[in-house]
Design brief:
The chain has about 450 residues and is of the alpha/beta class. About 55% of the residues lie in helices and about 10% in strands. Helix 10 (about 225-235) runs antiparallel to helix 11 (about 240-245) and helix 14 packs across helix 15. It is rod-shaped. It starts with a helix and ends with a helix.
Length: about 450
């Protein structure tokens, strides 16, 4: 137990009928009970004893025994139980949870202690409820199980203080009966199920919080799990490059310009699948605006002077066009149009409409019908979401544009595929991320 002495402990222990000592059936041998044996080998600085009405003997036997064998203990406090039916499996759940919370809040504010739970003393109901706390509580708890020194029963009713002097100290020191049972395997199953559920909903940040808020949970899983969750969380925040610094997936090889739009579309797809429709609709405008901005600059040379893209800063310079007909047309379509104005999807569609008459190739890449449909959706729904305090659901969308959010998503997918033919509509990178998370969890 030398390693244990480097740590600092708080012990929470119910007292049982074999505490603080047990006596062999033939009354010839005296041994430490579980509570006292844990204290001997872990030497906690603080001890909380949970004493039921039946075992409150009003003679301070527990404190006296602790002081005798561990005088360095800084604090011994008895908590007197209020439970009447000690055989009820539900009786101690709330009481133990509250006790542990209060202990942690009072004596472990800085997290300097490890809290030990004696799961060998008390009734079977007490023991099972403490094991449940180890599995479910977010506080780092270590269960300690103590085996009995002999197979025969002990009879603590024969307790007297002079029996404390008859304990074989050398035997108790050398015969270490404390073990830490592998109940954490149950905790791992519980947390694994939670992580899988969160990942399936693309809530990687929440899964990370679940693990990071519990030091013990970190030790239950491999470092790769943290990496995949961090990767997913960063991608959801459109931090593609940072995500790949953590872990690189074997995915489609798209160019950088294509990746920017695909990553944004993926987030839109997730928002739609989770019925986060207000967020989904709000993301439509920047997606459509910037993809049409990119398309026009790439396919209409004359617009490279009109549509400036300097280090991601996008501006309109209509009056820079050498075509006066274009300038007049734009000023008629867009009232009070000024150089440097905020770029909108409508302004870009107006430019498209002017040049598609001269170059029908544009219409074969992105059909005017699709652009008009997307503009109608933006006009009918997006402004309501952005400027009104209303609830956006499927019924609202269908009422306004006679189509579902899924239909709208597919139209966004269609324009993305039109501009970037290499985009694989059957591939979804978050499926790979979740598959990797599941595989890591199964190891």
């Amino acid at each position: 137990m030398n390693d244990n002495q480097k740590k600092k402990y708080i012990l929470f222990s119910p007292v049982g009928t074999h505490d603080p000592i047990g006596i062999s059936k033939d009354k010839t041998k005296v041994s430490e009970g579980s509570m006292l044996h844990i204290i001997r080998h872990y030497k906690p600085e603080i001890v909380y004893l949970y004493v039921t009405k039946e075992l409150n003997k009003n003679d301070n036997r527990y404190k006296i025994a602790i002081e005798k064998f561990h005088p360095e203990c800084k604090k011994v406090e008895e908590i007197y139980g209020k439970v009447d039916d000690v055989n009820s499996y539900d009786a101690f759940i709330d009481e133990f949870k509250n006790c542990i919370k209060n202990i942690n809040d009072t004596d472990n504010k800085n997290g300097e202690y490890e809290i030990l739970l004696n799961i060998s003393s008390g009734t079977p109901q007490m023991k099972s409820d403490l094991v449940l706390e180890v599995i479910t509580n977010n506080i780092y708890l270590t269960p300690i199980q103590v085996s009995t020194p002999e197979k025969s029963s002990n009879f603590p009713d024969n307790f007297s203080f002079d029996l404390l002097d008859k304990i074989d100290i050398n035997k108790e020191e050398n015969d270490i009966r404390c073990t830490v049972p592998e109940v954490l395997s149950f905790r791992r199953v519980k947390i694994q199920s939670q992580i899988e559920s969160l990942a399936e909903r693309y809530e990687y940040s929440s899964a990370l919080t679940l693990i990071n808020n519990d030091e013990r949970s970190k030790k239950l899983f491999s470092d790769d799990l943290i990496k995949y969750l961090e990767h997913g969380a960063l991608r959801m925040n459109l931090q593609y490059d940072k995500a790949n610094e953590i872990i690189k997936l074997d995915e489609k090889n798209y160019n950088n310009e294509c990746i920017e739009f695909i990553e944004y579309y993926y987030v839109m797809k997730i928002k739609q699948s989770k019925s986060e429709l207000s967020d989904f609709i709000l993301r439509m405008s920047p997606f459509l605006t910037f993809i049409l901005f990119y398309f026009l600059r790439k396919n209409v040379a004359a617009l490279n002077r009109v549509l400036e893209n300097i280090n991601g800063d996008k501006k309109i310079r209509v009056n820079a066009s050498p075509d006066q007909n274009f300038i007049d047309y734009m000023n008629k379509r867009v009232k009070n149009l000024q150089d440097g104005d905020f770029i909108t999807f409508y302004i870009l569609i107006s430019m498209y409409d002017f040049y598609v008459k001269k170059n029908q190739k544009l219409n074969t890449i992105i059909g005017k019908k699709l652009l008009d449909e997307l503009r109608a959706i933006e006009r009918e729904i997006r402004n309501d979401v952005a400027h009104k305090m209303i609830n956006i659901d499927e019924d609202f969308i269908k009422y306004k544009v006679k189509m579902s959010s899924k239909d709208i998503l597919l139209k966004c997918e269609k324009i993305l595929k039109s501009v970037f033919p290499e985009f694989d509509t059957n591939y979804f990178v978050y499926d790979d991320i979740n598959k990797s998370i599941r595989e890591v969890l199964q190891k």
